[in-house]
């Protein structure tokens, strides 16, 4: 059975841990990466033996993806299409994807509800969506600590571009798309706050920070102040 392991650092260790657990129990899977860009997730997943379809609007990002896939010897396992996340049904047969990644996409699309409906539409029954968004709570705190109090107030009211989400707003959006939220996680609870010099210099610091991120990811209130929020939602 392929194991979708990666040497991800503290920033995305939580997301990879969730994907590892989901994909390890499935065996070879069809993974769709909406907005997959240069292949940060797609290429490691292809290296693990999965078949990956990437849909992204940027031709430059897709060109970088093609180069990376070729360098890693997995070009035959990755199919790329230029298009928006809303266009998933144009490229992928409905009900055929085991897992759909929708990472840092809902912040920038024109209609998040339509995007998640497209995600749900290409998933097979029992398949899951991995949804990752910027956290409004973290945006408020970060702006206030930087002395940008008016901007923090804007973030609190939701008046921000790109968008930010809180748990309630994201839960409502996911549920309306016909997906059932299963697990919630905070991503980058501390990873963005710890100085890089500490991680680079102290022996075993990165491994310890990864372990701490994993330990805090599902625990309120730590989860709720993370830079990003992640939900695994089932079709």
UniProtKB/TrEMBL annotation:
Alphabetized UniProt keyword annotations: Methyltransferase, S-adenosyl-L-methionine, Transferase
Gene Ontology BP term (one): methylation
UniProt xrefs under InterPro entries: Methyltransf_11, SAM-dependent_MTases_sf
Pfam families to which the protein is assigned, alphabetical: Methyltransf_11
Gene Ontology molecular-function annotations: methyltransferase activity
Domain Methyltransferase type, residue spans: 32-128
Keyword S-adenosyl-L-methionine: yes
CDD domains cross-referenced by the UniProt entry: AdoMet_MTases
Highest rank taxon of the organism: Bacteria
Protein name, UniProt field: Methyltransferase
Organism classification: Bacteria, Bacillati, Actinomycetota, Actinomycetes, Cryptosporangiales
């Amino acid at each position: 059975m392929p194991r979708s392991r990666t040497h991800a650092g503290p920033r995305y260790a939580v997301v990879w841990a969730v994907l590892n657990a989901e994909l390890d129990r499935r065996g070879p899977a069809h993974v769709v990466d909406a907005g997959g860009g240069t292949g940060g997730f797609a290429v490691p997943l292809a290296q693990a033996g999965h078949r990956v379809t990437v849909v992204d609007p940027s031709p430059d990002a897709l060109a970088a993806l093609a180069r990376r896939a070729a360098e890693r010897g997995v070009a035959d396992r990755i199919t790329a299409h230029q298009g928006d996340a809303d266009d998933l049904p144009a490229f992928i047969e409905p009900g055929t994807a085991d897992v759909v990644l929708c990472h840092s996409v809902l912040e920038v699309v024109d209609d998040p509800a339509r995007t998640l409906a497209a995600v749900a539409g290409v998933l097979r029954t029992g398949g899951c969506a991995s949804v990752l968004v910027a956290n409004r709570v973290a945006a408020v705190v970060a702006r206030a600590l930087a002395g940008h109090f008016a901007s923090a107030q804007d973030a609190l009211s939701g008046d921000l571009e790109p968008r930010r989400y809180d748990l309630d707003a994201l839960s409502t959006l996911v549920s309306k798309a016909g997906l059932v939220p299963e697990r919630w996680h905070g991503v980058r609870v501390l990873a963005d706050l710890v100085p890089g010099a500490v991680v680079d210099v102290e022996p075993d610091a990165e491994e310890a920070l990864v372990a701490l991120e994993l330990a805090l990811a599902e625990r309120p209130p730590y989860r709720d102040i993370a830079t990003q929020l992640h939900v695994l939602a089932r079709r």
